[in-house]
Design brief:
194 residues, globular, 6 helices, five-stranded mixed beta sheet, alpha/beta
């Protein structure tokens, strides 16, 4: 009797929360993946300009991230990693904002996946140096988002881009029963050995 290899399967359904952290504006987007097809659930921003106290801004980021988690029950969080610029103080503040959103997800046992801005742009547009506008336009086309649902703040589409990038990076089939060793693989796939 010849063993039959299992067909790869995809995760049937999941929700991905994407966040573009910031201490002035935090962008977010949520996609729901059903039968390997992503659909927009929500997109938005948290505007923090009116709060002068940096620590109050961090509290707002924490609370908004938690409220998104409680409302949409995401399975995973994809977050944009801070990139090194010339202003070290800005990078430190951005890192704090990212850490705060991550901490909120950790309190709810949500797995976190971090992506560099260059990798996100590359995944969405094929060009790691693409503009925010190009990323937004590509997401609008890919996810069939009506113009009326697009927000003028590009931070929102940056959060959505993180979620979609994670979908693309993890959109690989998984085996129903993974192999336990090379011997197990060879036993289950005799036709692969010559």
């Amino acid at each position: 009797m010849t063993p039959v290899a299992k067909k790869p399967t995809f995760i049937k359904e999941r929700i991905i929360l994407g966040i573009d952290p910031g201490t002035t504006i935090m962008g977010y987007g949520l996609i729901k993946v059903e039968n390997n097809q992503p659909h927009l659930l929500a997109i938005g921003v948290l505007e923090l300009n009116r709060y002068e106290d940096h620590y109050l801004r961090l509290l707002k980021i924490f609370n908004r991230t938690l409220s998104l988690i409680e409302e949409f029950l995401p399975d995973e969080l994809a977050i944009e990693a801070p990139f090194y610029g010339k202003n070290v103080q800005s990078m430190l503040k951005l890192g704090r904002a990212q850490g705060t959103a991550i901490a909120a997800a950790l309190t709810r046992d949500i797995p976190i996946f971090e992506y560099a801005p260059l990798r996100i742009k590359q995944a969405i547009t094929g060009n790691g140096r693409a503009s925010k506008e190009q990323v937004a336009d590509m997401l609008k086309r890919i996810l069939h988002i009506p113009e009326a649902n697009m927000l003028p703040q590009l931070d929102a589409t940056d959060g959505l881009a993180a979620a979609y990038c994670h979908f693309l990076q993890t959109n690989r089939p998984s085996l129903e029963k993974p192999y336990t060793s090379w011997k197990d693989y060879l036993t289950k796939n005799p036709s692969k050995v010559k």
